[in-house]
Amino acid sequence: MNAARAAAPTRSPWHLHWLLLALAVALATATLPAHALSSPLQGRVVAVADGDSVTVLDAQQGRHRVRLLGIDAPEQAQPWGAESGIYLRAKVLQQEVQVVFAKTDRHGRLIGTLLLQGQDVNLQMLRAGLAWHYKAYAIEQGWLERWRYARAERQAQRTQRGLWADPAPTPPWEFRPQQRVKR
Q1: How remote is the C-alpha of 30 from its chain's centroid?
Q2: SS3 60
Q3: pLDDT value at position 177?
Q4: Between β-strands 96-104 and 41-50, what pairing exists: parallel, antiparallel or unpaired?
Q5: Looking at the annotation, which residues are catalytic?
Q6: What pLDDT is recorded for position 37?
Q7: DSSP state, 149?
């Protein structure tokens, strides 16, 4: 009987099948951010509202307001708000870009990653220290993108670039409610 058992192929436990399936799904989806599932928008940036919002004109002359995914730049009335907008304007205004998006926000803006010559402009804003990684919405990013954004923010903070030169910068998500109370 022992010889028969030794000769028979052994089956792996059922939980290993589920684990392998879960791993395969995780790897398949991990290489692309969640918002990369939609068709990218190609066009020219015709306006920069602030450090995290632009308007893109497509080939059919359609205007698309775009909110940069994964970052939150200082408001114009905040320290570094003007610098953030100036930096983004200098980088992308009148440039041909690609916007990779999957949704719109309650204001009708596309939420996406702005690519200039294949480079992630959202990430560049973090590296320059002119935006925060918007962790409240990080779930909308792929895991690799989330990691890159968090790392870029930490590096800017560590080197005191941009808004991180201030000892205690106020994130825009805290600043906005304070402004509503003052009105």
Answers
A1: 14
A2: coil
A3: 86
A4: antiparallel
A5: 67, 75, 109
A6: 43
A7: H
